[in-house]
Q: What sequence folds into this?
């Protein structure tokens, strides 16, 4: 009943979190040594849950796990380590004030012999090609360095089976390349690797086999070299999805926003935006590329009236040509000026929405001031919510469901739907598809393109360069708070953008 | 790999959302279980028939018309303070300064009654007392709110410390106004003139507090759930960043809400001094500023749910006195029972959210 060659066999694993429907429903999966397996699936399809049961975070409601041919019970992460299973989570679990080496040995029982441990760690690093400064404190590290420490930590504990949960989500293209190199080294050394992802090009590049989950059910495995992104997408989603983003020519573009000489210092006293000049036209999508934390957030928040500006101006130009200064305004004042501005922030539940409130109350965030009385109008937001649920096919038990209970894609549809409902003249989106599955992502792209056709000036901050270059009419590249260049989205190449993203990087980047 | 067959004895699984009926059943079971445990402990610790003890508690709270009225009056004060704290809690502003805000309201009332006796008509004293008590309570809420809004100070510590200041202020004025001199207390204020004693409603001295608390409870429910202010309070409580994102002035909301919270606590002080006790002591709030924190939480910040929650606590407190006299038991014994009952009521939430699966 199990494949005796497999490093790990999971049989009929079921887990229910009580949200209606199973997180995992009788999933059976084999993981082999010397192979990289991609675990692919839309959000909420149960990829992470399945792997969390392997690494001892959750315990399955039913089903069996075999290591080799022996049935095992994994009750804690420690059990998992004892069995040679280690997982690198999406959110790193490191102690900031300790060094890399200290973090790696942390929590192990027995006498602490730092010198011996360091030698072992160094050996691991040399063997697989990890590049890490063992004495560097975690708080001084970039995201990629932290990830390396996490992987080395898992290897140091003797893991033969490594699970990486969306490891590339936070990496630049160059860092991803480096990660894939060490992954291949580990594979050649006979380790079994599982990478959870939903980036199809990465699946194609790195993995030998792909296992696909859909809504908690196991759909099947494919040999990577015999498949293509379209087939994988179709299996993942359950029906056909067009993997194209339309890019119509801008209709009658006119200047809408004119930013000049903008400088911003954040609360910690770091200068996040330096002398930015930028103009955005109606009916076009301006993509903003850049390593995360390069001033994207500050730029958008300054336009939205949420960020204090040191100097410079942000002029909004109305249809009739009147100019309005937005610097020094708060969101309410901007709205009262007659500027209809929508903003889909990066932090959806922490800023754009209130997780504990239901759909209709979240609609009210934009509309609750309407009407002159002391009471809020509750009917209109309710109708609005119903409309958005219907038009965007939001999968929700009801309008009265708190939004935090919905999956990431549905949460984002609510937020984008609400922001578009105001028929904005300017739309700003930050990492609008981060963490979303293919199906939801393309729905959102379509909505944004549709908005562009309606004459909205769209500022699209993204991290996936392929998408940025497919959707944007122009691409502005931010590097350390400065615009390093504005390229024609139809002509620019990924490497051009990548170069501009990092050309000032060495030495000037002040902390993550 | 010697531990490979060690399956856990049981593990927890999250439940589906339960229906209202089943939730109620679980809560009722927990109360019955709590009463059973209390009975066992009563029998073992005191040797008294637990049914008799329960009977005494009931008769202590509702044994006669007068006892019932007093229970209702106590209930209305506790309810009023609980409801007063609720807008702050909804905003995630941990106002544990209810005690001090009530005391300040009481002190302001006492001051008006004492200083204005025979100077202005009684009705005017009542009006001035009302304004003064509400303003004093609001001021005690305002100070921590302003500090929070401007400098992001810790409101829990600050409201807590404001309680001690209020207590000391009351002690100070008791010495100034003590009657008779040297007694260290203020007797019944304006015993002969009844100047400034609040009016009776419906011919009963208990009805004023009861009516006010009902009105305030209904008001608070509507305010929190249907008004623009209430909506802003909820957004600020859930996420400051979201509030800023939609242009809510968070500092203004914090200050406005604490003014309301403090003012209603001041109102409770007015009733305690002007309508119920007609005197002031440092313990006139009787710890209800803190008990109200628990009531508000237990009711999950729903003003209407606070009625049964507050009733339970007042009921046990009133019963405590009765069992103390009837069985010469220490009144703390009732506290033990209250503790057990609360533990079960709060603990049963766990079984509403989780289910225990036992491995065979």
A:
């Amino acid at each position: 009943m199990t494949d005796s060659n497999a490093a790990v066999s999971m049989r009929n694993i079921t887990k229910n979190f009580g949200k209606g429907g199973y997180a995992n429903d009788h999933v059976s999966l084999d993981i082999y040594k010397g192979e990289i397996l991609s675990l692919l699936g839309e959000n909420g399809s149960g990829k992470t849950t399945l792997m969390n049961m392997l690494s001892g975070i959750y315990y399955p409601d039913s089903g069996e796990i075999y290591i080799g041919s022996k049935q095992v019970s994994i009750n804690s992460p420690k059990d998992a380590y004892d069995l040679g299973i280690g997982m690198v989570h999406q959110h790193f679990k490191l102690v900031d004030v300790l060094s890399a080496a200290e973090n790696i040995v942390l929590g192990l029982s027995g006498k602490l012999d730092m010198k011996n441990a360091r030698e072992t760690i160094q050996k691991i690093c040399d063997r697989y090609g990890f590049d890490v400064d063992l004495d560097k404190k975690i708080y001084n590290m970039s995201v990629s360095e932290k990830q390396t420490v996490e992987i080395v930590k898992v290897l140091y504990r003797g893991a033969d089976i490594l699970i990486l949960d969306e490891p590339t989500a936070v990496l630049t293209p160059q860092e991803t390349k480096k990660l894939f190199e060490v992954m291949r080294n580990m594979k050649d050394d006979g380790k079994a690797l599982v990478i959870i992802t939903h980036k199809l090009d990465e699946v194609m590049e790195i993995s030998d086999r792909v296992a696909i989950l859909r809504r908690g059910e196991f759909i099947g495995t494919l040999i990577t070299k015999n498949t293509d992104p379209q087939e994988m997408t179709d299996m993942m989603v359950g029906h056909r999805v067009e993997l194209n983003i339309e890019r119509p020519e801008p209709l009658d573009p006119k200047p809408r926003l004119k930013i000049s000489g903008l400088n911003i210092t954040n609360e910690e006293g770091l200068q996040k935006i330096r002398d930015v000049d930028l103009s955005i036209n109606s009916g076009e999508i301006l993509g903003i590329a850049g390593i995360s934390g390069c001033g994207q957030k500050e730029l958008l928040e300054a336009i939205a009236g949420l960020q204090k500006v040191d100097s410079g101006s942000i002029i909004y130009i109305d249809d009739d040509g009147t100019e309005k200064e937005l610097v020094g305004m708060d969101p309410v004042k901007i709205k009262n000026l007659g500027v209809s501005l929508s903003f889909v922030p990066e932090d959806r539940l922490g800023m754009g929405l209130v997780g504990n409130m239901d759909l209709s109350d979240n609609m009210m965030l934009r509309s609750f001031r309407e009407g002159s009385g002391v009471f809020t109008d509750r009917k209109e937001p309710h109708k609005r919510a119903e409309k958005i649920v219907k038009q965007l096919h939001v999968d929700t038990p009801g309008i009265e469901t708190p939004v935090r209970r919905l999956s990431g894609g549905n949460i984002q549809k609510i937020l984008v739907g609400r922001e578009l409902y105001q028929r904005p003249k300017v739309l700003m989106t930050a990492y609008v598809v981060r963490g979303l599955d293919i199906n939801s992502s393309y729905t959102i792209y379509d909505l944004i393109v549709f908005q562009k056709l309606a004459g909205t000036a769209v500022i699209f901050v993204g991290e996936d360069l392929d998408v940025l270059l497919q959707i944007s009419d122009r691409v502005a590249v931010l590097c350390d708070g400065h615009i390093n260049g504005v390229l024609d989205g139809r002509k620019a190449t990924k490497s051009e953008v990548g170069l501009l993203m990092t050309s000032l990087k060495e030495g000037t980047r002040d902390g993550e | 790999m010697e531990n490979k067959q060690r399956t856990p004895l049981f593990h927890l699984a999250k439940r589906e959302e339960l229906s209202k009926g089943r939730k109620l059943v679980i809560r009722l079971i927990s109360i019955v279980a709590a009463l059973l445990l209390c009975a066992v402990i009563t029998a073992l610790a005191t040797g008294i028939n637990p049914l008799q003890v329960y009977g005494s508690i009931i008769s202590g709270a509702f044994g006669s018309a007068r006892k019932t009225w007093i229970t209702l009056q106590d209930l209305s004060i506790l309810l009023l303070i609980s409801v007063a704290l609720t807008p702050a809690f909804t905003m995630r502003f941990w106002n544990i300064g209810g005690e001090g805000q009530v005391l300040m309201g009481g002190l302001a009332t006492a001051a008006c009654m004492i200083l204005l006796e025979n100077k202005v008509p009684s009705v005017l004293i009542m009006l001035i007392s009302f304004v003064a008590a509400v303003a004093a309570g609001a001021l005690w809420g305002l100070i921590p709110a302003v500090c929070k809004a401007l400098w992001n100070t810790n409101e829990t510590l600050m409201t807590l410390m404001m309680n001690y200041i209020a207590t000391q202020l009351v002690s100070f004025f008791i010495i100034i106004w003590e009657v008779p001199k040297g007694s260290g207390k203020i007797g019944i204020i304006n015993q002969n003139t009844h100047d400034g004693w609040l009016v009776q409603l419906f011919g009963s001295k208990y009805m004023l507090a009861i009516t006010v608390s009902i009105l305030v409870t209904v008001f608070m429910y509507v305010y929190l759930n249907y008004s623009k202010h209430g909506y802003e309070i909820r957004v600020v409580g859930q996420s400051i960043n979201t509030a800023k994102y939609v242009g809510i002035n968070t500092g203004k909301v914090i200050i406005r809400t604490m003014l309301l919270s403090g003012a209603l606590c001041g109102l409770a002080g007015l009733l305690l001094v002007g309508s119920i006790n007609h005197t002031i002591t440092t313990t006139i709030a009787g710890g209800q500023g803190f008990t109200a924190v628990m009531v508000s939480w237990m009711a999950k910040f729903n003003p209407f749910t606070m009625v049964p929650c507050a009733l339970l606590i007042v009921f046990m407190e009133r019963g405590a006195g009765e069992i103390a006299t009837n069985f010469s038991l220490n009144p703390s014994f009732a506290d033990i029972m209250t503790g057990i009952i609360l533990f079960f009521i709060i603990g049963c939430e766990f079984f509403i959210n989780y289910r225990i699966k036992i491995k065979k």
Residues 233 and 241 of chain A are 7 Å apart (CA to CA).
